[in-house]
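Hi everyone, sorry if this is the wrong subforum. Our group has a chain we'd like a structural model of before ordering constructs, and none of us has done structure prediction before. Sequence below.
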Amino acid sequence: MIDLAKEIEAEREKKIPTRELNDILLPEFQRTPPPATGTGREVKVRYITQVGERYPIFLLFANYAKTIPEQYRRFAEKTIRKHFGFFGSPMTVTFKDKSKDIDEETR
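Answer:
Right subforum, don't worry. Here is the predicted structure as tokens:
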């Protein structure tokens, strides 16, 4: 039991570099993009990073992030776990707005 607890603790503390997250996960999210719910426009995940000190929190920046349904958040979590593990560790996956159009307008 102690060995399992140590393994889970190591998984919880794992940090994945942003470049590695984007190199591995963005192609997955391009193959299976979020549905165009509500806007009728194509929703794209543009950038992924890991934050959080006590357990893994992943921020996925996308255009129209507020329209991404809960089932896609679950898909994103499963995809992260498939590639990087985090066995037994709680995880938070959050979508934040990052629109290319908004960035270009603010310049």
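For your construct planning: The chain is about 45% helix and 20% strand. The helical segments are 2-13, 18-31, 70-84, 100-106.
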